[in-house]
Amino acid sequence: MPPIREKTFLEFYDFTQAWQQTFTALKGWIIVEAICFGLLPALKLIDTRVRMDGWFIPSIIAGLVGAGLLGLSSELLRVVEDRLSGTQKKPLILLGRIASLVGIAGVGLPLFLVGAEVWMYFTVNSKKPL
């Protein structure tokens, strides 16, 4: 009888599940991107064309990277919680959580930019005399 080999970490990692989670994050990011850079300026709810045009490409890059990090790190956290024990678990959980936070920041960049634009609009207009 051949010896039983212990599975490696990557053999537990389900890349199909990671891709599904990445595409779910991408769908949410596309909606946020369309609202922040398309719908709100088109409806003249925010005046962003001058200051935010330079942020469109970096926002796309941050969103794609962020969605990828969210998908991969969520699957990493699932595998670590299910399969690993004590001392192996803590650094990988920390890595997964940090990657998730960076991913959320990348996906949420358009919301931050719109919030900064609205804040700047109200602070500049509130200082004008009546």
UniProtKB/TrEMBL annotation:
Membrane-spanning parts: 25-43, 55-77, 98-122
The UniProt keyword set, sorted, is: Membrane, Transmembrane, Transmembrane helix
Name-wise, this protein is Uncharacterized protein
Q: Which organism is it from?
A: Cyanothece sp. (strain PCC 7425 / ATCC 29141)
